[in-house]
Amino acid sequence: MVLIVKIVSVVIIIYGCMVVLKPRIMKKIVEEIKKDKMIYKINGVKTVISLLLVLAAASCSVPWIVFLIGSLGLLGGACVFIFKKKVIDKFISWLETRSTKQVCMLGTVAVVMGVLLALAA
To answer: What is the pTM of this model?
Structure first.
């Protein structure tokens, strides 16, 4: 189970680095998400990965960090299914209007979360 946590953390770190180095990637991802029901497919994957993190937390060296990150992912996954499409579209529109500097900050947060997850594994 620790291997799953490490793989997830490496993927998060790579994604965050890509966003920091090329912020336009985030805008392209947001454009893809806007397509027909893509948000629900991506959210389903995120929810499964978050569930795996929660289940794997007990076997990690710092379980509360892995549990917390997995729980936040599950909470975010539940919000997408609970909120109406109008609210989700509003959030996606908000993401699209972020400046390059703000997008880089989001990428930095992803890198930090990935590193934290890797260290806690």
So the answer is: 0.86
